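Ops channel
N.P.: pipeline sanity check, posting one input/output pair.
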């Protein structure tokens, strides 16, 4: 059930109407829990048991921390949670990857080796809800958060449907305290939520889904396209992946807001960053901060020397790359990102403030970051090493691989996107918030009609659903 599908709109209107019709907080939360379970079952009911088991495990492990006082027992409970949750994630997401990589390496050494692979279906949202529950368990273990008593509240935290499938990655401290307070309709900024949902809908239905069928053949067979078309395709993918993922996040925040709940911001105009390091502070913020707090800091990244911090930061980025998918192209994506962070941090340490080089980078930083992102998107989007390597050659050496062309007119869409994106970045649309309700309603209605008239006829799954 995708946010841009008519059935989701029907589903949400039903959830919304019943939710606010209920007066007490308890029945409202139970209704949301039932709705979230239904939403997940609409994808694949067979994995609901795995989701509930993972959530139940961490609920009882957190209570166990409170009932035992010995450090060894507490570490044992934490290990149990990490082993089972990461074990499930590793099996469903990485089993075939590691088996095929291991046997391939042995055969390369001359050792005849075979191992069975499995036809495994990846449970939707497992990379996200696993991190939801683990952050709770680790925070309780570190005594930063008190274990919650009410099982249904914890289950709602894990399964809350706006954020369950593709984030943002919500931490217990960000969500559970909201469940203790009754939501008041008078506090809901309906206008802001509807506007945010419409913006996300436009990004997904009007931009991302129109770009997808244009660039899919290019990435499937890059050798058949000219160098100019490859660059046009990379520009389009640059726009598509942002509109697809940030569009989902916008709609997730909007639907949660209409129910009276707030979710963490996941994007902060990342394409206007001046370095890859700053880009990751603005892109998929909930993921980058999760790895910072629960991986990088846990390994001592903030306590050692600058060199140690750089190396651990690079390791973190490689793991972030692997989190995105089971393939060596994602490892390569992480390696490239980690290399860029080493260069960025080394530059910051070696070049003094106020120097000509620093002033020059204030103008050149963003274009250079875009160029580097284009290079990274090749690995991120490629279906394998062969396609990725072909596109790399075309990208760097401008080799014309074939005669197929992408229409240069598509660059007008890219230009229009960045003009509108820059306008939002500069806050030029804020004055629209002050218009009266009649003008606002007419504007939203006209925008919605325009979107429905021109949105893609084929609804595509969100890109990050596969992760």
């Amino acid at each position: 059930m995708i946010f841009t599908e008519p059935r989701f709109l029907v589903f949400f209107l039903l959830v919304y109407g019943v939710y606010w019709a209920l007066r007490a907080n308890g029945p409202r939360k139970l209704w949301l829990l039932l709705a979230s379970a239904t939403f997940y079952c609409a994808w694949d009911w067979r994995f609901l048991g795995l989701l509930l088991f993972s959530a139940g495990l961490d609920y009882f492990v957190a209570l166990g921390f409170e009932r035992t006082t010995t450090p060894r027992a507490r570490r044992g409970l934490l290990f149990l949670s990490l082993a089972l949750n990461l074990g499930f994630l590793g099996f469903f997401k990485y089993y075939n990857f590691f088996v095929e990589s291991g046997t391939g390496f042995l055969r390369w050494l001359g050792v005849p080796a075979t191992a069975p692979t499995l036809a495994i279906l990846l449970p939707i949202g497992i990379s996200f809800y696993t991190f939801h529950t683990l952050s709770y368990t680790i925070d309780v273990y570190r005594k930063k958060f008190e274990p919650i008593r009410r099982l249904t509240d914890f289950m709602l935290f894990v399964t809350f449907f706006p954020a369950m499938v593709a984030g943002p990655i919500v931490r217990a401290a960000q969500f559970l305290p909201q469940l203790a307070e009754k939501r008041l309709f008078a506090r809901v900024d309906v206008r802001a939520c509807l506007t945010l949902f419409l913006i996300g809908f436009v990004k997904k239905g009007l931009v991302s889904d129109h770009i997808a069928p244009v660039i899919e053949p290019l990435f499937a067979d890059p050798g058949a396209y000219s160098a100019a078309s490859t660059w046009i395709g990379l520009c389009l993918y640059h726009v598509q992946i942002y509109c697809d993922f940030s569009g989902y996040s916008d709609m997730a925040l909007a639907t949660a807001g209409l129910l009276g709940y707030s979710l963490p911001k996941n994007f902060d105009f990342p394409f206007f960053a001046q370095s890859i390091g700053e880009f990751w502070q603005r892109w998929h913020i909930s993921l980058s901060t999760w790895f910072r707090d629960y991986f990088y800091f846990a390994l001592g990244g903030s306590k050692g020397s600058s060199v140690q911090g750089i190396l651990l930061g690079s390791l973190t980025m490689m793991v972030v790359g692997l989190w995105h998918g089971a393939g060596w192209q994602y490892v390569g994506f992480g390696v490239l990102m980690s290399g860029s962070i080493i260069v960025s941090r080394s530059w910051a340490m070696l070049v003094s403030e106020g120097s000509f080089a620093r002033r020059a980078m204030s103008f050149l930083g963003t274009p250079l970051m875009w160029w580097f992102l284009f290079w990274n998107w090749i690995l991120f989007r490629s279906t394998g090493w062969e396609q990725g390597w072909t596109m790399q050659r075309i990208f760097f050496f401008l080799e014309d691989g074939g005669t197929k062309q992408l229409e240069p007119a598509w660059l007008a869409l890219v230009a229009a996107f960045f003009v509108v994106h820059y306008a939002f970045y500069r806050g030029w649309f804020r004055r629209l918030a002050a218009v009266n309700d009649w003008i606002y309603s007419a504007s939203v209605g006209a925008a919605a009609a325009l979107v429905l008239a021109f949105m893609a006829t084929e609804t595509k799954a969100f890109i990050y659903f596969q992760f």
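N.P.: looks fine end to end. The first helix runs from residue 6 to 21.
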